[in-house]
Write a structure and sequence with these properties.
seven-stranded antiparallel sheet; Elongation Factor Tu (Ef-tu), domain 3; alpha+beta
Length: about 170
């Protein structure tokens, strides 16, 4: 599939860097798509292997292209930079997180009904974000610390976890 190329500025929403993708560009990627659009992205021609990500709807027909740190690092870019964006629809995308729920998280959720119910109520992209984060943890200490935080926020405590404030398990 042919890639869409355009120039845009990296902006910040909260703490998240993004490039706005106009509605017309999104329509050329996948006409009539209203939910997150799975795409392959390169910024200024980097990384060599296009990064998989989903464009997130803004509500007005346009989309947010949130830029993962790996993409920003490969392209040596940061907020405020004007960049060349290359997008193509990810034909290989299949719904689901792509990450298995680790046994240690499954066990903790089985022991805590409130956290399990909150986990089941999370939108798929939020679950995917958490599972991707957990998959990247290196040490048993980091895993234990982050599991404890996840269970606290999923159980309804108001706290910060993964760069956002959680309230009532959301």
């Amino acid at each position: 599939m042919k890639a869409e190329r355009f120039y845009g500025a990296i902006e910040i929403r909260g703490i998240n860097p993004y490039v706005r993708v106009e509605a017309e560009t999104a329509k050329r990627l996948k006409a009539g798509w209203r939910k997150p659009i799975p795409v392959l992205v390169r910024i200024n021609g980097q990384p060599k292997q296009a990064w998989r990500i989903c464009l997130m709807p803004r509500g007005d027909g346009s989309f947010y292209l949130y830029l993962h740190s790996s993409v920003r690092k490969a392209s040596a870019t940061r907020a405020g930079d004007r960049v060349m964006v290359e997008l193509s629809f990810d034909e290989s995308y299949r719904a689901g997180s792509g990450y298995a729920v680790p046994a240690w998280l499954r066990a903790a959720l089985r022991r805590n009904r409130r956290a399990r119910d909150a986990w089941e109520a999370l939108i798929p992209s939020r679950k995917k974000e958490i599972l991707r984060y957990f998959a990247a943890l290196k040490s048993p200490e980091a895993r234990a610390r982050n599991l404890r935080r996840a269970m606290e926020v999923l159980s309804g405590s108001e706290a910060r976890f993964m760069a956002r404030t959680w309230k009532g398990g959301k």
